[in-house]
Records
---
Amino acid sequence: MLFIPGFIAGALTSGTPWTQAEITIIDNVDNLTTSRCTTYYKFALAQYEVVNDCVGIEEKDAYDSNTCNKRFEGTDICTLCKNGGNAILAMATLGTVAAICGSIALLAKYCGGPYYNALYSLQLRCASFTCFVLVSAFALMCWAIWLNPCFRELVDYVDNFPESLSTESNVWLGGGWSLVFTAWIFSILLAVMEAIPLCLQEKAKEGNKSRSHLQHHDPASAAMSEMKDAGVSEVVTVVSVANPSELATKGERN
């Protein structure tokens, strides 16, 4: 259970990229490739990194810096990724708290032993279910926020690189996004695992209510039900199908 907040915490570190891209500039002479120079981009929640070994560029800075605005001039990458990163940090923090609370509830339920009665165990199960539903919701919002403003703008930047240059480009989601997506999958699985026993308990309650209603309105059926629960159903069946007159005759002979 505790690996879920670990995944989220790993995605929030400053060096974990949420998007990576590479743009290769190709110099052609008479349709012959003479040189290839690739620039690598890494975009985290609060900063970006640009590396180009051909010209010796190694740049790392925050989205709200002047360097970022100059690097991606004419685009909204710096603003959108900064705002998206701040929103994701808030959602992920809430998700981490919910994941820790859900893990504590699970550990208390399974490690409590005889000290916890059925009602308290049910309360812990409801608490863990609610926490993991919240984790899945926060994780979903995190990677949806990154996909819509920032990642979309990065794809447009790569696709619209100066057409005067011959380029090969690629952009893909990084490890940070994958970690949050994995946390979302596991939180959904845990929520479903906690929901199934809750549904079964609700059905058991409905069955107990029906039996209570039957006992109130039909004492004979209630007695039969209690005897069957006690394991004497065969005796009750024999007595019920016996002929009263035969039993009386056997009694006189004896």
Note: Residues 228-242, 247-254 have pLDDT under 50 and may be disordered.
---
Amino acid sequence: MPDDEHSSIIAVINTPKTGTGELTNYATHDTQSNAVFRTHSVSSGLQAVTDHRIHFHDPSHQCIILTTIREPNTWIKSLFMEQNRDLCVDDMTMDRFFQKYLEWLHSFNYKLSSQDNPIHGLLQEFGSSSLTYHFENFDKNGGYSLLHHPSEGPLQGCKLLFLRMEDASNWSNILTSEVFDQINPYNPSDPTSARRQHCSQNVNDLYSEFQTYSLTEEERNVLVGNDSLMEEYLQLYGL
């Protein structure tokens, strides 16, 4: 039989720019007995969890999958900045910044309803489809919704902990109650610190101003397309 030292697993299967690093830091900081895995791909993430469970032949070992959702206006702008590091030049102007953003958005082929999208793919795997249901749980529980895998097989006994990023200040308490028996003090890092170090003060100031603008109707239509789950997502955030 395999060694039980890392028989339990915590898998962070998450959308880019929605706290993946912070969740991974929580998981690796607060436990020595779990295998920790992170990815943005549902297929590779679930395969890694499945392989791990088959390897240890015991569904009683802890199996936690973590994923998050983030307010779309801040998420889309953060993702844009992450994918356009060439904007970090001293002579950048807001007009050029916005022009680049609109060009990027129109070429942005993102489908929330894609099978390999972390939110859609994981909810389907755990027998759920309605974001509205989970938002009701977020409000009731202080920022999380918990699902148990509905079928037998390698993922039997696995839990999906679905977190709202706007409640990140509660993550320590949530993870304490739903994942770990106890949690060590941990001060999460500022997720914008890497960008601030990479960019000039001028660009940081432009980005701060950029974040204050709401999605326009044109931008919203580009994001939604014919994606009903994206439409539900935006509506739940009042957009």
Note: The first strand starts at residue 8 and ends at 13.
---
Amino acid sequence: MLAASYWSLLAPSIEAAAESGYGYCSGSTAIADLPKDSCIAASGTWNEYSWFPAAVGLITGALALSLTDRYLPSDLVSAVMAPTASPVRMATRSSSKRPKGPDAQSQRRILLLVIAITLHNFPEGLAVGVAFGGIDGQSMTFEKACAIAWGIGLQNFPEGLAVSMPLRGQGMSLWKSFVWGQLSGAVEPLAGILGAVLVQVARPVLPYALAFAAGAMIFVVLEDLIPEAHKDPGSRAACSSGVFIGFVTMMAMDVGLG
């Protein structure tokens, strides 16, 4: 998730912002409002701030997941994570309080993970849609758009497992775990259609959306997943090794597959 947050979300966010012309031209008054290429051609200085959408989206995404973690109703957690629970028992729980006990905390943590991965999939679908909607035969060709879709599609396999396996570990049935894994990625084709149809509207929003999803995923990793994995002193070395192996694997997929 950390690797995907950078190579699939933050780096494309900065690239998308740069392509959208985030920056300003400095020099004489006559060239102050020129776009990047014209500014450089007129011997002006182009000042990049393509980092700005990534910074805003990253902080906003982390803040959104923090608020979700704080105010997520316990009834919703129980309904999603324990769908076979008795309605009478669920009705006795207060929706204003966080669930108690290690099982409830694990359920809450997994649900936040599902939310983060779902948020992560939306801007990826948007990026695919913008790529196909922006085909012009020059800067974006059909082959490039297909390569983007292929790379994002392949990395969805481990992301789906990251949703389904913890749910299965919590006692959810095999079928329901599979369905939740599929639903977390179902937003991607919907976002792709939206991006292709509204390419001119979606393109400026894309850098912020990508970074927002990165902030949400990084928050879940730092706040819940890593601390939980290191609770058992005897397994810390294995957990740390798993983090690096997973990071390198996702890095290779994200970079190697486009």
Note: The first strand starts at residue 23 and ends at 26.
